[in-house]
Amino acid sequence: MLFRNIILHSRTTSPRPVPGCSKYMTGMIRRYSQHIPARKCEANTAHPGTQKSLPITPAINFKNFSNHHLAFQHKTTKELLRSLFVLYSCSIDTLVNNSFKLLRMGEWLMGPRLLRLLISPFYYQFCAGNSDQEMMVTAHNLSKSGVSILVCPLVESDVGDQQLRSELFNTNLKETLDLVHMAAQNNYLKPIPAMCHVKISALLSPDVMMRVHDAYELLSFKDRISVVMAVADAMDPNTSKSTPSIGPLALSPEDTKDLLDCLPRIYEIGCVATESKVILLIDGEYTYVKTTINLLSLAMMRIFNSEKLLVWNTYQGYLKNTLNVLQHDLDIATELKLKFGAKIVRGAYLEMERSRAQRLGYPDPVNDTYQLTCANYDNVVELMLRAVHNNQEDRAVMVATNNEASIRKAVSLLHELGLDPQKGNVVFGQVYGMAENISVPLGKAGYRVYKSTPSGSVLEVLPYLSRRLNENRTVFKGARRERQLLSRELISRLRSTS
Fold it and tell me: Whose CA is closest to 284, among 256, 260, 317?
């Protein structure tokens, strides 16, 4: 009855367009895998090997975004029912607002085992699983539609997390290195490169990052260039230097030491990614540490992007100043002759950014409305697409959004500028478990598409899922169209079997 009501609701609701390395992670995954019922794997789970490039059309037929057969042909009927149930549930404000409380209460009342069974539909909707084999199956299934995985870490940290010290940073480093290897091992669409997210806050205390951010903000453009060069030199052990320096960046001796101590960790990740041929996408995180992330990303680009675009930074369209920040970093990249890649997202920390601004009494950094965010997002994407057009060897962009209108605009501009979608300097990204009607048609048409895919135990994933539910409520509310397509595909399958 529940699924029948969900299907009827989706049918009667009109679509609304809305703008080399450690073995730690492997051991951890195996240790926790017993907590989750294993996902049924396909009989043939062997590495399918390298696939040929798909033929590219002059421009994708946007009508395919409404083709439910094309979007969901790789999913079982059971998976369709699960997707419909989960996406419908995620559109209910009461459930989303109290998700973390409900999860904690459920664990207390029912115990960990029953809770895992209860939330398994949500877990498997948005997570690849908790074992190497489950990740392999997920990546293999996506590859059939021309879609690659973008391995996503589960670290969630913020200012005030005092437990973040060198011992934990080293643990996070090992986990990140294993995620890089996981991305490389599950790349079934070669020569398309694998991709992996990296969180700087897993390697350096957010409190230190905030103070570096404040100090960097006070510098002139010329001094910022000097700091990028100094940090890159301090990060690279092959650079001859007597004493590591951070240039004109005014920090306390303690913060300077912490910053310098994190650089070897970042350098090791870059080296492993280079050897594994994995592109690193540096997460954007919070506004009050973002400039630190930009600084370290530019320093990494100076070291690791000499031959290929290995390091890309993230820019968040929901922030009012993103267009200016991106242009600023592009200018630094031009001055230093860096290869520069950018992932453009809407953003995932909206409520926390607004509540912090209100609590501390500074201007809200987030756009006032979702419509303004969409307009800003499209402008930021256009800036990067034109930058790629003007310098196709040294610039790259990922258009990372579940929003169909923004995808349409980006694809149209891509072809207007005469860019080749198979070259690899313009790619697309969506969240695993959502926007199949966008990802699959793009992948089938030969565009390079990635799904941001977390992997881990239920206990690890709970905070991640709760955060994503709360911060992406607008996205879930806007999933009416996807629910409608899911319903159509379900009805079509039921009719064909009757």
Answer: 317
CA–CA separation, 234 and 211 (whole Å): 19
Q: Write out the chain's pLDDT in tens, 498 residues.
A: 444 444 444 444 433 333 334 333 334 333 333 333 333 333 333 343 444 443 444 578 888 898 999 999 888 999 999 998 888 887 777 776 666 677 667 666 776 677 777 788 888 888 888 888 899 999 999 999 999 999 988 765 555 555 556 678 888 999 999 999 999 999 999 899 999 999 999 999 999 999 999 999 999 999 999 999 999 999 999 886 777 889 899 999 999 999 999 999 999 999 999 999 999 999 998 899 999 999 999 999 999 999 999 999 999 999 999 999 999 999 999 999 999 999 999 987 777 888 889 999 999 999 999 899 999 999 999 999 999 999 999 999 999 999 999 999 999 999 999 999 999 999 999 999 889 999 999 999 999 999 999 887 777 777 677 766 665 566 665 577 888 899 999 999 988 876
Q: What are phi and psi of 397, to 5 degrees?
A: -145, 140
Phi, psi of 451 (to 5 degrees): -110, 120
Domain boundaries, the chain: 153-400
Q: What's the CA dihedral at 387, 326, 380, 350 to 10 degrees? A: 160
What SS3 state is found at 424?
Answer: coil
Q: What one-character-per-residue DSSP string does 68-131 give?
A: HHHHHTTS-HHHHHHHHHHHHHTT-HHHHHTHHHHHHHHHHHHHHHHHHHHHHHHHHHH---SS
- Cross-strand partners of 253: none
Global pTM reads: 0.84
Q: Which CATH class is domain 153-400?
A: alpha beta
Helix runs in 243-321, H state only: 253-276, 287-304
Instruction: Give the CA distances from residue 487 to residues 40, 69, 483, in Å, rounded to whole numbers and listed in that order.
Output: 24, 11, 6
Sign of the CA dihedral running 114, 117, 120, 121: negative
φ/ψ (deg, to 5) at 284:
-80, -45
Residue 56 DSSP class: P
